[in-house]
Design a protein that fits this description.
Layout lengths: L13 E9 L4 E8 L5 E6 L7 E3 L5 E3 L2 H11 L9 H14 L4 E3 H15 L1 H11 L5 H10 L1
Length: 149
């Protein structure tokens, strides 16, 4: 294990004087004291998840990015109630990926999970997202999707 360096004197010798759990993602905050210069500093420890790859329609693979899901959901929920639920939706989707121990997930599956969450939350946001995800080409596509609600 790498030792934490003091930001003041670069010593590798420090002791933990306080430890707290912070954040909903299991982050740990450690208050440390340098044994050489005596100054205190804070470090944060986070769990590094196994990288998940998203398989695009073209077959290309790219790293899963929480921020990309967030942008899509925020766009669908723009000026709609429920925008404060985006983080919870993404947490549930990431939970599914972890529970199934997926290392690769098709983008279509992610889209279906997002649609499922939006359908429960807000029908307008659901239609907005579905129109982009399913590439609606004319108003009849909206009508068909609306009938499924």
């Amino acid at each position: 294990m790498d030792r934490v360096k003091c930001p003041f004197c670069a010593s590798n010798l420090s002791k933990v004087v306080d430890k707290r759990s912070v954040g909903s993602r299991g982050e740990i905050r450690r208050r440390r004291e340098c044994l050489k210069c005596g100054k205190r500093f804070t470090t944060y420890e986070t769990l590094v998840a196994v990288e998940v790859l998203v398989i695009k329609k073209s077959g290309r693979k790219e790293a899963f990015e929480r921020e990309k899901l967030e942008r899509g959901l925020l766009r669908a929920l723009e000026k709609r109630p429920g925008i404060d639920k985006v983080s919870g939706i993404i947490d549930r989707i990431e939970g599914r990926i972890r529970a199934k121990r997926l290392q690769e997930v098709p983008s279509q599956k992610l889209g279906k999970w997002m649609l499922s969450e939006l359908k429960k939350l807000d029908p307008i946001a659901y239609l907005r997202f579905a129109s982009v995800y399913r590439t609606f080409s004319d108003p009849t596509d909206f009508r068909r999707e609306l009938e499924t609600l």
